Amino acid sequence: MKRAIFLITLSISFLRYMLSNYPDMVISRKLRTAICTLLFLVVNSFTLLAQVSEITTGNSTSAGMASKATATSLTWSHTVAGGNNGILIVTISVRTDVAVSSVTYGGYSLTLAGSQVESSSKVRGEMWYLKAPAAGTADIIVTLAGSANFAAGATNFFNVDQTTPYGAATTGQGSGDPSLTVASAAGELVIDGVADRDVDTESIGAGQTLLWTQKNGTVSEDAWAGSSMEAGAASVTMSWTTTGGGAGEWAGVAISLKPVPNIAPLWTIAVQ
Known about the structure:
Blueprint: H1 2-21, H2 29-50, E1 56-63, E2 71-80, E3 87-94, E4 100-105, E5 108-109, E6 111-117, E7 124-131, E8 136-148, E9 150-158, E10 170-174, E11 179-183, E12 189-197, E13 201-204, E14 209-215, E15 223-231, E16 235-243, E17 250-257
């Protein structure tokens, strides 16, 4: 982006200089070539700006279980539409400190992005991801290391950098309303996943877009999970307001997805 702006500014400045100082000059072959090259760079630079990839959102799904129920695995169906440079994000909320042992989509294993346990071990939150998930409909299977009440959800995105899809994960826990402050940048997209328990109602902070929520019930033994997104900036705060008997004991994970790098070739031209 900075390179493109520099080239545009340089090209325009040079052309203005030539028109102001040498309007009637018979231009030599070399100078004619230089001017045409700069004109081409202007066009190429605008193309470069236009080719910046915006991260787009695909499908969101979630699943849970009956109130007070426990299990070691949870399975639900998720559809990924066709698109380039995709990523699938799965967030899990466990109503105790039982770790997730694996997450798969269509038989492909996801990678752990980050996890956090609430200080009194009442809830555990985890976020997993899979780059370039296959287009189509397949099952997401979350397996725990032990039996617990838990809920989970997923969202897939497109135009995400496949080499470095996100920066360092941000984690947090506490009492009160969930809040995570994430280092990000313009053009990126911040995604959070929050784990809580016994939640009656929830709402997201200003500037955020809700992706999904899932609750198993409204008693102490029931897990609640939610995920939202917000456009990237130097610092982004992802917050929730929750009510209920267990609301206030939370754990969360957030990442800032990075867009596909903008690589536009600069060509050379020759003018006879």
